Amino acid sequence: MIRLEDASKIYRRRGEQVVAFRPTSLEISTGDYVAVVGPSGSGKTTLLSMLGGMLSPDEGQIWIDGTSIYAGSVTARASLRRDKIGFVFQTFNLVPYLTAIENVQVPLCLAGVHKDDQHRHALGLLERVGLGDRLGHKPSELSIGQQQRVALARTLANGPPIILADEPTGNLDPDSRACVLDFLDELHAEGRTIVMVTHDATAASRAKRKLTLRDGSLVTSDSDGPARAA
Ligand SMILES: Nc1ncnc2c1ncn2[C@@H]1O[C@H](COP(=O)(O)OP(=O)(O)O)[C@@H](O)[C@H]1O
Ligand SMILES: [Mg+2]
Fold this sequence. Notes:
This protein is an alpha/beta fold. The protein has helices at residues 44-51, 74-84, 100-110, 115-128, 144-156, 174-189, 201-206, and strands at 2-13, 16-28, 33-37, 59-64, 67-68, 85-88, 162-166, 193-197, 209-214, 217-221, 227-229. The chain has one domain (2-93, 145-229): Rossmann fold (3-Layer(aba) Sandwich), CATH 3.40.50. Helix 3 packs parallel to helix 5. It is globular, with a radius of gyration of 18 Å. It binds adenosine-5'-diphosphate and magnesium ion.
């Protein structure tokens, strides 16, 4: 379970303030599939970054499975992020000089997985996203859609129970978009929690719950979870 407790965020830069996220409380149940929608600048990425342990709220707290993630040390937060959270971004952050399979092996290597197992596991993941024949290609030798699928395979390498995706289908061709969405459906069916920011109505319709943000406030939260804007 992910829980926001009166969490808010104001960006301050050279004396100017931008209220990016107004105090909000919200629960996301384990295994839920949530779409976050709203106009550009409404605070979607800010929300996702706070949920993922990458951006501390100015006020309030964020809990993941009973741990207040910004209350502990940076080290504790880093290990919680590594064990529990997988990110998928619109820009994939693949390492340009590594091949597809090496990119997928990076998190396995960091987790201390044996070299042979890294290769076997990464191969399985790339096959799962339909890229079993592109193992030795560098990102620049892959289409945008293929790069996103490599990124997805890399995200899944350590089996994170929570997947946070920021416009994962933005800029993709229809086939890759369908592949990414099918894959997210599978991950949801496996019991993982998915929170996906999207502009894409088709993508949003695949989720079980929709959160709508406007101007840093949660304006609707359809279906089950208790949501209240303070
Ligand atoms: N690092 C930053 N510094 C200052 N303002 C920011 C920063 N990041 C985002 N903002 C502002 O915060 C608001 C919310 O941004 P964001 O969460 O990125 O919205 P969205 O993802 O919905 O487009 C916007 O007004 C944006 O300009
Ligand atoms: Mg954004």
